[in-house]
């Protein structure tokens, strides 16, 4: 029964990981940008909600605020950095990788200046939810429910709205999308903004369930990469399976072998995926 509880906790943890990875997956799928500053956006969102909570703001209202702030920051980064690199350099993929790495370093240092290096969390929804013989943290359950709502909203936006379908069309064929009158610059701005907003929202949900600090940003980026690598880069359905798998493996590793192995598990999974299934676990090999 204990193992079942551990696995269920891992599945819930996977819900968080899915939201952490969705923003990165969206940015990569639309623009082909590997955003190494993704974890910094998550940290800024979480610590931003922490400060709002300290000021007396309800965390749910804080979620709305960091969503808007994250979208604004993402739009600024896309307009001021990514788009300019794309328009002036032939090897823009490599340069944007380096630029987002530098941006991550800057944002982490800014966060350390503002919040310090101490781990922060908010004591919100601290009671437990009992279902039969199993007990779950209420903050974890509510966080996963919100993550599911946000993830489904993104899926609806991408598949059922004109803006979302235009975004996907631009990703599949920029030339064809341009011939249809779609403005690729504006779509890239929207895509990166949404990706940053989702990352900030993931940070808000994380800070409700576990302490976070600026120096954790790189780890969050790695976990997000592992999730989308397992599912296949740009594969949104695969990301769901990848997130659940990472959550379950990490939780079981922590239960059996301690916190050190638990922390190392995503890195090990990333290495194994790159060695044996670089296209993702759910991606079929070409005939």
From TrEMBL:
Q: What is its main location?
A: membrane
Q: Which GO terms describe its cellular component?
A: plasma membrane
Q: How does it sit in the membrane?
A: Multi-pass membrane protein
List keywords of the entry alphabetically.
Amino-acid transport, Cell membrane, Membrane, Transmembrane, Transmembrane helix, Transport
Transport: present as a keyword of the record? yes
GO:BP terms for this protein?
amino acid transport
InterPro entries noted in UniProt = ABC_transp_permease (IPR001851), BCAA_transport_permease (IPR052157)
Superkingdom as given in the UniProt entry: Bacteria
Positions of transmembrane segments: 6-28, 35-53, 59-82, 94-116, 136-158, 189-211, 264-283
UniProt subcellular location: Cell membrane
A GO molecular function annotation here is:
transmembrane transporter activity
Q: Which family does it belong to?
A: Belongs to the binding-protein-dependent transport system permease family. LivHM subfamily.
Q: By what name is this protein known?
A: Amino acid/amide ABC transporter membrane protein 1 (HAAT family)
